[in-house]
Design brief:
Blueprint (H helix, E strand, L loop, with lengths): L3 H13 L16 H8 L3 E4 L5 H4 L4 H6 L3 E5 L13 E3 L2 E6 L6 H17 L1 H19 L4 E7 L5 E7 L27 H5 L7 H7 L3 E3 L6 H10 L12 E3 L1 H5 L6 H13 L3 H20 L1
Parallel strand pairs: 1-2, 7-8
Antiparallel strand pairs: 2-4, 3-4, 5-6
């Protein structure tokens, strides 16, 4: 898939290389990609231009993956600046595999096992910290210290997230769904530091225990905002390839009011580079960030 001159050049190279690969079809646009693949009975798709990436995600990449058809992006010289480590060669040309879903199921199970293990090990400390936090919120907010809110989880599933209440009652009664602002006037007295340290997220440990969330991952957003962001930000839905988290790269490197597009960059870096070690590093850095904010 690419400009005719690029396609012709790669076709010639593959035919002259002695490789087992052979070109069975070509197209200059992704709009008819699925039909072209079916017509040619292709087993793999080679993308020759990076400007095509946004056109194939999430569809038709997801459909091709379901059909066990590999999709590969040709590595351009400038791509090496990103530090690509996993590439393969086809007739001597470097390509990277594209996947509709970032983590296979066995890695998602490993991530879940890590969450459950850490929760069990830290349970006594968790109960102590949550108890003290609840008493503080009660002293500031009065009754109704926990509130529930719909969020979008893994695979686009809706669930109810739990949070300590840090804003006035009916904070969005006149405005509707509104993103948090710097120095938000709706925040209760004495609760700004509480929010800055992310202590209002502690009740979400129950969401983690239920399997709706993970300790680390992209923060779950509200359905109204997800619809907006998916229209504005290509690739936004890929955040939902993994369970949402209490903390994540975007949280330790940004703030509540950080622009969504910058948060998305951190989230996608996390998704494509996930490992148990990365989760542990983010947890440790979260503790450091919380301590610094509490010390201010």
């Amino acid at each position: 898939v690419g400009p005719p001159e690029e396609v012709q050049s790669v076709r010639h190279h593959i035919s002259e290389s002695g490789s087992e690969a052979s070109v069975v079809g070509a197209t200059s646009t992704t709009s008819d990609l699925l039909a072209a693949v079916e017509l040619a009975d292709a087993t793999d798709v080679l993308l020759l231009g990076g400007d095509r990436l946004e056109e194939i995600y999430p569809a038709p990449l997801d459909q091709l993956e379901r059909q066990l058809i590999g999709v590969y992006h040709r590595v351009q010289p400038a791509d090496t600046l990103l530090g690509l480590q996993r590439s393969r060669q086809i007739a001597g040309i470097p390509f990277v595999a594209l996947r509709a879903h970032a983590l296979p199921r066995y890695r998602l199970r490993l991530k879940r096992l890590l969450d459950v293990t850490l929760l069990l090990v830290a349970l006594p400390m968790i109960m102590l910290v949550v108890g003290f936090a609840a008493l503080y919120v009660l002293s500031r907010a009065g009754t109704g210290i926990i509130y529930r809110q719909e969020r979008v989880g893994r695979g686009g599933q809706i669930f109810e997230v739990l949070k300590f209440r840090t804003m006035i009652h009916d904070a969005e009664a006149t405005t509707g769904a509104t993103l948090a602002l710097e120095d938000d006037p709706r925040v209760l007295s004495g609760m700004r530091w509480f929010r800055a340290a992310r202590l209002d997220e502690l009740p979400q440990l129950w969401n983690v225990a239920k399997g709706e969330m993970s300790l680390v991952g992209p923060r779950p957003e509200r359905p109204a905002f997800v619809s907006q962001f998916e229209n504005r930000l290509p690739g936004y839905s890929r955040r939902h390839d993994v369970p949402p988290g209490i903390t994540g790269l975007a949280q330790i490197r940004g703030r509540y009011e950080t622009e969504p597009i910058y948060k998305l960059g951190h989230d996608l870096q996390y998704v494509v580079n996930w490992s148990p070690v990365l989760d542990l590093m983010i947890m440790l850095e979260t503790i450091v960030v919380m301590a610094r904010r509490l010390a201010r």
